[in-house]
UniProtKB/TrEMBL annotation:
Keyword Repeat: yes
Reactions catalysed: L-tyrosyl-[protein] + ATP = O-phospho-L-tyrosyl-[protein] + ADP + H(+)
PANTHER family the record matches: EPH RECEPTOR A5, EPHRIN TYPE-A RECEPTOR 7
Record organism: Xiphophorus couchianus (Monterrey platyfish)
Protein name, entry field: receptor protein-tyrosine kinase
Domain Eph LBD stretches: 50-228
Length: 464
């Protein structure tokens, strides 16, 4: 048991509890309550993140609440263990019946709150421990409130107040407790809501109890701003009902976007806790998640889609020299086809076909060849044939024209052979076979092909 502070004294006058006795006990219990690490006797946790509208214990000057009648509730002062002034109220009109003593706070502006918490700390004397007190003594008091849009002055009309609850003590103290210096501090929390006006008053009605109102704390709760699933959820005041869940839409952090058909949402509970996360944001192309933020991919890395989780190193024959890239650029001489995703390596056109041979049968030529030594890094190699009819003068050649046939086709050949038909007899031709792939038409370099010159009407076989 902790020792009583030396500067606190207790005394009783004429066998009845005096104001000094009750005030002294109130003062000591105030000191004791400050050592409870925000946990009250009912197990409720008072959190620093709650938004305080009124805290009588934090005010060192006079509270100047309205007491009606004036000889009812009495404001008293004292010092805590640090000799800091504190203000409390007490009443102990237990010797006379039909007590009706009211105490009203100053006007409390509620801000954007809808649901208000009222925490009361108080001590109460056991009626049976009061010598000479008969049936007039009570062991409860009543808590009321009145909503207003502005201050209404110092008048107090009882019929304008709404009762919140009758407050009873879990523990009351006796004369024996005073002698043994036992602590009997009660803590009760009540909730008001929903509120619709700009502010309100609290009122305490004593009907004949011996009470010390040690502190009054009024606060409301918010769900404080957080980042969840790469979405920012703003400060949100809780709903007006105990079961309220306020749905809040999140806003994606920088360089993030909503996942398709899955926008981020959370729900703010009446206790100021975020619950039921739905949906999420994902980092845009060129960015990857690190903690609660999206960071750009580094040089030499890329991320082509928001659906990808991480940045990847640039594919072969590609590079980038900037951060936040969604693709990598191809090195000189290498290309990426329009249908190629950014994840594939850059490639180049194939080399020329090898081992081109032909066979002439009057006006028909059969060509065969082997695949190129270098496919350019691709597996979509096909072949195309170019036919030119040439005069006896060198380099005077023209396209063969539409009358010439190709079997199975002139271009897009998969197999390494073709038959060219309906050539003119006794004419000179140059036949070119080119290997092509998906990036051949993007190349700005000279075409690579195998060629053979032939004269129709002559039988024979030549190798290019």
């Amino acid at each position: 048991m902790e020792s009583w502070p030396q500067h606190i004294q207790f005394r009783e006058i004429s066998g009845a509890p005096s104001a000094l006795l009750l005030g002294s006990l109130c003062l000591w219990l105030m000191i004791w309550s400050q050592k409870q690490d925000f946990t009250n006797l009912n197990g409720n946790i008072y959190r620093l993140e709650d938004l305080i509208l009124l805290d009588s214990k934090a005010q060192q000057t006079e509270l100047e609440w309205i007491s009606y009648p004036p000889n009812g509730w009495e404001e008293i002062s004292g010092l805590d263990e640090n000799y800091t002034p504190i203000r409390t109220y007490q009443v102990c009109k237990v010797m006379e019946p039909n007590q009706n003593n009211w105490l009203r706070t100053n006007w409390i502006e509620k801000g954007d709150a809808q649901r208000i918490f009222v925490e009361l700390k108080f001590t109460l004397r056991d009626c049976n421990s009061l010598p000479g007190v008969v049936g007039a003594c009570k062991e409860t008091f009543n808590l009321y409130y009145q909503e207003t849009d502005s201050e209404v002055g110092r008048g107090l009309r009882e019929n304008q107040y709404v009762k919140i609850d009758t407050i009873a003590a879990d523990e009351s103290f006796t004369q024996g407790d005073l002698g043994e210096r036992k602590m009997k501090l009660n803590t009760e929390v009540r909730i008001i809501g929903p509120l619709s006006r700009r502010g309100f008053y609290l009122a305490f009605q004593d009907v004949g109890a011996c009470i010390a109102l040690v502190s009054v704390k009024v606060y409301y709760k918010k769900c404080w701003s957080i980042i969840e699933n790469l979405a920012t959820f703003p400060d949100t005041v809780t709903g007006s009902e105990f079961s309220s869940l306020v749905e809040v839409e999140g806003m994606c952090v920088n360089d993030a976007e909503e996942e398709a058909d899955n926008s981020p949402k959370m729900h703010c509970s009446a206790e100021g806790e975020w619950l039921v996360p739905i949906g999420k944001c994902i980092c845009k192309a060129g960015f990857h998640q690190k903690g609660d933020a999206c960071e750009p991919c580094g040089r030499g890395f890329y991320k082509s889609s928001s659906q990808d989780l991480q940045c990847s190193r640039c594919p072969a024959h590609s590079f980038n020299d900037r951060e936040g890239s969604w693709r990598c650029d191809c090195e000189d001489g290498y290309y990426r086809a329009l249908s190629d995703p950014p994840s594939v390596a850059c490639t180049r056109p194939p080399s020329a076909p090898q081992n081109l041979v032909y066979n002439i049968n009057q006006t028909t030529v059969n060509l065969e060849w082997s695949p190129p030594a270098d496919t350019g890094g691709r597996n979509d190699v096909t072949y195309r044939v170019i036919c030119r009819r040439c005069s006896w003068e060198p380099e005077e050649c023209v396209p063969c024209g539409l009358n010439v046939g190709y079997s199975p086709a002139q271009s897009g050949l998969v197999d390494t052979y073709v038959s060219i038909t309906d050539l003119l007899a006794h004419a000179n031709y140059t036949l070119e076979v080119e290997a092509v792939n998906g990036v051949s038409d993007l190349s700005r370099t000279q075409r690579l092909f195998a060629a053979v010159s032939i004269a129709t009407g002559q039988a024979g076989k030549a190798v290019c």
